[in-house]
Write a structure and sequence with these properties.
The chain has helices at about 25-50, 50-55, 60-70, 90-120, 125-135, 220-230, 270-290, 305-335, 355-385, 440-455, 490-494; strands at about 10-20, 150, 155-160, 165-170, 175-185, 190-200, 205-215, 230-240, 245-255, 260-265, 340-345, 385-390, 405-410, 430, 435-440, 460, 470-475, 485. The protein has about 500 residues and is an alpha+beta fold. The strands form 3 sheets. An 8-stranded mixed beta sheet has the order 12-11-8-9-10-16-17-18, sandwiched between helices. A hairpin with a 2-residue loop joins strand 6 and strand 7. Helix 1 (about 25-50) packs across helix 4 (about 90-120), helix 4 packs antiparallel against helix 5 (about 125-135) and helix 7 crosses helix 9. The longest helix is centred in the N-terminal third of the chain and has 33 residues, at about 90-120. It is globular.
Length: about 500
């Protein structure tokens, strides 16, 4: 039975996949085919009036579209009679929910396409206009067919013992109850099973449970600041080379605006992953080059070409993502952090280059974003720790202690050509006063300062180790608390 949202709690949803055995796999295929046919029927009904579809609330979705498609004693005639007879109520409602998601996604894609076309029409030169229109592509359309796994609500299955279950399936002519044996990992503590789906993947039949739990909320951050007078955050700077993570725990006090640095965490592993991945990508590139000739294979490579190499790459990446996200969440719990702060990395793009080099950069960017998502989910699900993201502008080139503009990269000089391997440090930054810091340390401090400056009313001051007080590094704009922030050196120059 699905859980309902409760005030003061977060509803956490996760998936649990298992292997299933059946004597009649054809029944599962027939049920999936029927499910997708019902989904497509409701997609067409909703596509007649998309604006009406999007204006309907989720709670009224079934009532509205069943009244348009299902006949009964009160409704002898309906505008769009459903052509499928004897479809169970929960089976039909699962298809309605899936169709609503398709139409909603299509509308979002269409609006984004229209925005791209508007930007193209506003281009000053014909060359740029043509390039942007070509990049935008054709307008998105609703799908003509789908192949979703069948979603089963509570009345469609029962008698779940943990290793067997009875499911109602369509044989092609009638509905029957079929008993399945399945193997699945143990249900995590605090979770309960909700809906389930049957899916056929690579010729194997799998069962996928949606498991849920309610996690108590710690309250709004503003309320926590008022109650405790301080806020402790874990700020994280993600890099595309080692150390892949530089994390710092900082605590800010609202009454004084003073921020103290407590501890630092550095995590390695990206350089090894990048080396192995580039080696595998090179092998894939060579294999594709060999097939790019007029042979019996044609001009395009086969669908599952180099499947083993791609699987190795995915497993390496997944292992690193899970290890780093687990470490960050446990580190935040150990130091009782109320919030985890990341940089917003939406604008990361790969540089131009050869196949293996460009693919390596793209997948490194993807890993950085995936670490953020997995950390966000685990922190909230396990310990009710919030996660947020800030604009990374100026965080790397601003001195966290004195607020001056730093030199970075090759501007630092010959010192930047060497890594401080004995301390695990990476690239350096040089302050106007001539001091040299690790760029990851400096950025991690500024990420926390930038967020705290948006939450506190007083200017944020980072306390330098060994000194009684510190200097202002980040200042809010004079409009109001929480607006976009700029570093003090930029504010003074303006």
């Amino acid at each position: 039975m699905a859980l309902r949202k409760q005030k003061g709690h977060f509803l956490i949803n996760e998936a649990m996949v298992g292997v299933i055995e059946t004597k009649h796999p054809g029944y599962v295929e027939a049920t999936q085919k029927l499910f997708n046919s019902v989904v497509m029927f409701y997609v067409k009904v909703m596509g007649v009036d998309v604006e009406k579809c999007l204006s309907v609330s989720v709670s009224d979705l079934y009532q509205v579209y069943e009244s348009l498609t299902i006949t009964n004693k009160k409704r002898a005639e309906v505008p769009h009679p459903i052509p499928f007879k004897d479809v169970p109520k929960d089976f039909r409602r699962a298809a309605i929910k899936k169709a609503f998601g398709i139409v909603k996604s299509h509308d979002s894609n269409l609006k984004r396409w229209q925005q791209r076309i508007e930007r193209a029409n506003q281009a000053k030169t014909l060359k740029k206009k043509t390039r942007l229109k070509k990049k935008a592509g054709k307008p998105p359309t609703l799908p003509t067919s789908t192949n979703f796994p069948t979603q089963f609500y509570s009345s469609m299955f029962g008698q779940d013992t943990g290793d067997s279950i009875v499911v109602k399936l369509w044989t092609g002519s009638s509905w029957v109850k079929e008993k399945f044996l399945y193997k699945c990992r143990e249900l995590p503590s605090g979770y309960q099973k909700s809906t389930m789906s049957l899916m056929i993947s690579n010729g194997k039949l799998n069962i996928c449970w949606v498991i849920q739990k309610l996690t108590p909320s710690q309250g709004k951050l503003d309320e926590q600041i008022q109650a405790y007078g301080k806020l402790r955050v874990l700020s994280i700077d993600l890099n595309l080379s080692d150390p892949i993570v530089v994390a710092k725990v900082l605590e800010g006090y609202e009454d004084t605006g003073v921020v103290e640095e407590i501890t630092t965490l550095r995590l390695q592993g990206n350089n090894r992953l990048s080396h192995l991945r580039k080696r595998y990508l090179g092998l894939i590139a060579k294999a594709k080059k060999l097939t790019n000739t007029h042979t019996e294979l044609g001009n395009s490579p086969p669908k599952r070409m180099c499947a083993t190499l791609w699987e190795r790459i995915k497993n390496l990446e997944k292992d690193l993502i899970e290890k780093i996200s687990n470490t960050l969440v446990e580190f935040a719990l150990k130091y009782q952090c109320q919030l985890i702060v990341f940089e917003n990395l939406k604008s990361l793009k790969a540089l131009k280059g050869k196949y293996s080099h460009r693919s390596n950069i793209k997948r490194s960017n993807w890993i950085a974003k995936k670490i953020q998502k997995r950390t966000e989910h685990k922190a909230l699900a396990r310990y009710s720790i919030y996660t947020t993201r800030i604009n990374p502008a100026y965080t790397s080139i601003t001195d966290a202690f004195l607020g001056g503009k730093c030199l970075r990269g090759s501007q630092v000089g010959s010192l930047n050509l060497y890594l401080w391997s004995e301390r695990g440090l990476g690239k350096l930054v040089k302050t106007p006063e001539g001091k040299i810091y690790d760029s990851g340390d400096n950025a991690a401090r500024n990420i926390a300062l930038k967020y705290l400056a948006s939450k506190f009313k007083k200017p944020v001051v980072l306390k330098h180790p060994g000194l009684v007080s510190g200097c202002v590094a980040w200042l809010p704009l004079p409009d109001a608390k929480g607006t976009v922030l700029i570093p003090s050196w930029c504010a003074l120059s303006v």
